[in-house]
Amino acid sequence: GDSVITVQLSEEDKVEDDVVFYLVFTGSTVQHCTSTRKINPGSLETISPGHDCCETVKVALCASREGHPVLVVAEESFQFVQDEAYDAAQFLATCAGNQQALNFTRFLDRSRPPAADVDFLDEKVALAFRHLKLPAEWNVLGADQSLTENLPRETLMHFAVRLGLLRLTWFLLQQPGGRGALSIHNNEGATPVSLALERGYQKLHQLLTEEGAREPDSWSTLSHTVHSGDYSVKHHRGLGVYLLTAEA
């Protein structure tokens, strides 16, 4: 989800300015409708919706004009694929509280990737996390709520801070157990807050300690979503397009 999609119109579909084009994505359980913006007479641009599962969906390009019936201009299949970011988000979500798995993730820290790779990883994994269907009881600290906060252990928050993942840290802060994780020491006595300070991650440290700290720049800050029952409407300020998602 949240990738830019470009639609090339054929010669016969290049019509007057009062025609509005939109895309309809029909999945097995969810349907999305996105508005588009015209780049030029032959090209449209929109944002791909975040889908609830990896599957091939039908996408229809529709044209609407006041006083005329809606026309289906073209139909095509569109595939939501399970990429590395999705796999990583699923792995991290399932290993919340699993000490063996969380200690394994510390191997990633031994080969520090370049800053550009970290930024890419941060954006993609945080976005994939937003689209995961997390169980209602999911918690950053894991399923075992009997563990006291004084018990030294690794947490997902330690993982995100250790790699300097700003957007993933922000996402985890908004989830159940996110704030509680900030005061938990690992076996080396480090909290996520002290880790950020020790590694010189100034922005990350501010995110964890300042009241009213704002979300790091990402697609999610360029958009606003309103939920209502089985429907949600998302406005992407960057492109000025809207996305309506409805459960079938």
Question: What features would you describe in this structure?
Answer:
The strands form 2 sheets. The chain has a 7-stranded antiparallel β-sheet with strand order 7-6-2-3-10-9-8, with no helix packed on it. Strands 1-5-4 form a 3-stranded antiparallel β-sheet, with no helix packed on it. α1 packs across α3, α4 (156-162) runs parallel beside α6 (192-198) and α5 (166-173) packs parallel to α7 (202-209). 26% of the residues lie in helices and 26% in strands. The protein is an alpha+beta fold and 248 residues long. The mean pLDDT is 85. The longest helix has 17 residues, at 115-131. It has 2 domains: 3-81 and 221-247, no CATH class; 84-209, no CATH class. The radius of gyration is 21 Å and the shape is elongated. It has helices at residues 84-94, 99-104, 115-131, 156-162, 166-173, 192-198, 202-209; strands at 4-8, 20-26, 30-35, 37-40, 43-47, 56-64, 71-79, 223-228, 231-236, 241-247. One of its GO terms (biological process) is adrenergic receptor signaling pathway.
